[in-house]
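Quarterly update, task 2.4: S-adenosylmethionine-bound model.
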Amino acid sequence: MKNRKSRIIGEVRELSKGFSRRTIPADYMDRSESREAYGAYYGEVGRAKGEALGEEVLIRASPALFRKERVRILDLGSGTGEFARALARTLLASSEILVDLHMVDRSEKALARIIPGEKETGLSLSSSKALLPFERPFLAEGWDIVSMANCLAENESAQEGFCELFCQAVDVLSPEGLILLVEPADKRSSRSLLALGDRLLERNPGLVLLAPCPGGRKTPCPALSDPDNWCHEDRPAGFSGELLRTAEALGHVKDALKMTYLLFSKGASPQRPSLRLVSPLHREKGLFWGDFCDGRDWAKVRLLTRNKGDLTRDFPRLRRGESIAPPAAWPLGKPALFDWPKDLAVVRLAHPDGRPFDRGTREPS
Ligand SMILES: C[S@@+](CC[C@H](N)C(=O)[O-])C[C@H]1O[C@@H](n2cnc3c(N)ncnc32)[C@H](O)[C@@H]1O
């Protein structure tokens, strides 16, 4: 047992180095030791992301998606399958649909680990081996959801090919269909996904960006106009004791679900205009401040402590990813700094995943 644990820690250490330095060997999922370590550590995180984003799909997708008898999901770069299966299971658990999930990976051995797997009611699994982005026979068919998690970072030199692939995916997507792209939260991975998102919006005028950006933006992502910016999620999450012990041994901090994601739709309505907090809410002497974005403009908004009152008391409680009603003075000129006045109510509209705040209840002071 002890040997297995220390072997997994050693393997995860190597995987982690390879992912962050972009030196991961192309066959890591073919080696049983690294495949087992990936499943044991990253698999649990992938499962948590699949569940969280599945819940978000239930909130944000067109209701027509869940009136279908069968929802067909295509997942690219599935690895050991935890992300895709958690996404599928979450949809299955909350609606009357049946789910067909097709998983694609360059590693036949990774796919063999999940297929046939144990049988689950309502979920039918299939897979195919393919080297992305060029081998795409699966795109001859129509899909309701096309997802890809943590695969772009391993294919930085093939951005253009992935852009082509997702343009083709848009063409074969059902009218109520979704494209869900997820990458790690670090600056390099995040910016590369945001840049791919901009290309997809530019090339597919009918595509709606449902999340995370408010207002269904079509314009270039404001984070990309500053080379130091990027946009990512940091949502509360609980992990198993085993994962936390492995993380501690590696010096990793696993206290939240961190990721960059983009959710596109062909048929759902975009989020209404709002301001999303895209940084932590900082507290400094005499003020609270954060970076906010409405999908077009990115600016600092601050509340001076002396302006904290009944109408503004929710400002210091805001968490990354939450959205609030924008002030009439938005968008701002340059420098993009807005001082929230004492007499303007801070109205929390939605949690990071789109769940609305209950307007009837306010947290006690
Ligand atoms: C980091 S894992 C992600 C697995 C899963 N999507 C998740 O989020 O947990 C990346 C997976 O993508 C696969 N992959 C990477 N590049 C690929 C490519 N060019 N074609 C097909 N599969 C690829 C790898 O084999 C690996 O299984």
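Highlight for this quarter: The CA atoms of residues 53 and 341 lie 35 Å apart.
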